[in-house]
Design goal:
The structure holds two protein chains of two kinds. Among the domains of chain A are: 265-512, no CATH class; 590-668, no CATH class; 710-768, no CATH class. Chain A has 31 helices and two strands. Chain A is 76% helix and 2% strand. By secondary structure, chain A is mainly alpha-helical. By secondary structure, chain B is mostly helical. Chain B has five helices and two strands; from the N terminus they run ααααββα. Chain B has helices spanning 5-28, 36-54, 56-63, 67-81, 103-131; strands at 97-98, 101-102. Chain B is 72% helix and 3% strand. Chain B is elongated and about 55 Å long. The mean pLDDT of chain B is 86. The chains are: A mainly alpha, B mainly alpha. The interface between A and B is large, with 52 and 60 residues.
Chain lengths: 768, 132
Amino acid sequence: MILTAILVIILAAAVAPTLHRVLPALSHWLLALVPLSAACWFATLVPGVAAGVPVLETTRWAPSLGIALSFRLDGLSLLFALLICGIGAFITLYSGGYLRGHPRQGRFHLFILAFMAAMLGLVTADDLISLFVFWELTSITSFMLIGFNHEDARSRRSAIQALLVTGGGGMALLAALVLMGMASGHCTLSAIAASGVDLRAHALYPAMLVLLLLAAFTKSAQVPFHFWLPNAMDAPTPVSAYLHSATMVKAGVYLLARLNPTLGGTEPWFWALTIAGGVTALWGSAMALRSTDLKKILAYTTLMALGVLVLLIGVGSDGALKAFAGFLLAHSLYKGALFMGAGSVDHGSGTREVGDLGGLWRKMPVTGLFIALAALSMAGLPPFFGFVAKEIVYDSAFSNERYLVLAVLLLANSAMVAAAATLFLKPFLGAPTRAAAHAHEGGLALLAGPAALAGLSLLFGLWTALPQGLLAATADAVRGAPLGLELHLWHGVTPALGLSALTLALGAVLFLALAPVKSLLAGVQKVTRIDHDRAWDCLLNLVEVLARGVTGWLQNGILTRYLTLTFAGMLALLGSTLLLRGGMSWPGMTLSVGDGLGLALAVLMLAGTLGALRAGSRMAAILSLSVNGLSVALFFLLYGAPDVGITQLMVETLTAIILVLVLARLPFLPAGADRPLPAKLLHAALAIGLGACVTAIMLSILGQPLPLDLSQFFGDTSWLEAHGRNVVNVILVDFRGFDTLGEITVIAAAGLGVFALMKARKGQGNRP
Amino acid sequence: MMDSLILRTGVRILLPLMLLFSIFILWRGHHEPGGGFVGGLICAVGFALHALAFGIDAMRRVLKADPRTILGAGLLLGILSGFITVPTGEPYMTAQWVGGLGTPVLFDIGVYLVVVGGVLAMVCALMEEGGA
């Protein structure tokens, strides 16, 4: 059923552009129904999963490689699945309103639904390889989404940056997963967890850990890989609201949480996660306070939240993991609402600059109300769910006596209070500005998302029993053992309550003294500043210069040189292997009268070769070589390989046709323009050497006894199992069909490549 | 384009024959020598000869579809034929047979189309490069 949910969303993505063309005004409503119904289906699973029974589902995929499409829903996966589908439904709706009239709106729906399916697969995958595939799919679909406004050079740059950073992390993830599979001997996450193999004691643990952290930190934008996330905010607002707050950037956090029971709890784990998380949280807070663009403020507070989540996993105590579950939900709800609200403000007033906004309350009261509710949850005020989550976060840090962690959390949360106030107070209650004069309320599609998410922030705060079961199951899954999470709006007078009060006071101070705080932060950052974007560009330039150098040396555009290098390389490798490994042997050969036809063909081939060497024009050389090729085809026919013979014949014909087409474009060889003698000698030596080498190999192979078990197997099973008598073809399309699939993909790529190259030479705007 | 009466007359007769023959080769491939790859090559050679005799535009008119479309359709067919196993729960690309027809035949048709599309895409690109 999980697979069905993913496939249905993919199907919705596939029909989205067509649906949008047919029903432009209704498409987003219809498409939103798909993730919404998936969310409802996932919601029905909550009681079972909360009772501690995960849902397992396996489809065989490539059993010969040990790869299965297996899915597993425990608390953590289910919480993510609900967020992805639930918020996804509102985002689909919202983007319909936000991009109304945009010429590529249908394509946007396609991308965002495809991303949703990938993300859903990622958080439910149990098989290591499926996990990796879905992880990569999220990187690729997010590349499409960030670069959606591809006319804009900055969007393109941000998209490529995000793709390269998260794609690099994906490579690290693949290596980490392969190592984990090798070390444990299992290929699903649940089997590794259940096997009792302690990966933490394995010799490869450091390598696994480093690779895994690379993957998680790049995806979740932890310092020092954080720079792509603020740039990615060039994407349309629905993308920022969905990918960069609720879902994709939390994929790294998900991975860490998922692997916490198997890899977590060690000293290196603790230090790596707490330091990266803490620094990210503080840096995000500082940048959020400095920013004046609504979306940038939200982007940086998201960095802060990601840092806190990583920090909590790193601390890893029971309390911290409970806090992780609570804060994860709280943040997704209010941040999604705020992003969509900020997008509506931008949409309605035409600007996102806090300085240009003011007095929107009278023009956009409904949007304002939802932003206010979400901002209150973000500031952590009762009775919102943000408050409940913050209380358990503080409680966990306090009860563990980790005071440095506590200080980081306190600072970050105060900054969050100030940011929440900045988001709402000035734009909505400040003195009216020019931008506010023509501001207007968005439609129902734009309001539904903020309303639902802000409403849930309030509802969950008032009725903590509602999310408690799922969050308890989430915390249990991250720990790998039951924790017994309980949520309360009122804890009584505890240290956490005192810390909350302190946070509010500190936040108020930060907000009121925003100007001096900003200049102070600017001063600090001038000293500690590293221009990540500049460094990134330098790195890319370096790679490009290197690649250009190597390519320029190896591929200078002179075909003769390519062939010389290729043949010289072949000769060196083949010849040295043959000589060093002592593979030479001489078979006992006898010539019989029956070989007369074969001898005649051999003479014909020699004649063809000589003709090609002595040819005065290219055309004559090609025709001489064709004699060679056709003789080879006849050889195959003669010695019982008709399939190969026919293919060789057709390839020979096509080669002749294509060469004729190419030759028609080349200038005639000018008379007397011959190569200099040294080049001629080199080419001759190469040709004779390689020919001799291959001949020696063929003769040596003939000297070996022919292993017949494969032909025996194919001969025996071809008719019985594959219902075909032509063994060659049965191997191609059935026994080894997967190889053939790869080969036809190569043919397709080659065909399109030649087409594109020739068209590119012709110049732009000249499409057939 | 080659302005040769012999080639033109020959191609007029050869093209339909080669098409039929290529499909025959594709069809018999499962039991006798042949198959999608060779069949596709024969078909592509037929069209390439037509293009040589009558020019690329005439060939496109006879072919009806763009070579790239044929190529894509073939690849899609090849990939999709492996998914027929999904309801049975068997691994991807496990052959399914109903009477004399099976998914490998579908896959072979995909190979045929990819070869035709790929070769003709190259031929078109090369001929249009000089011809236009």
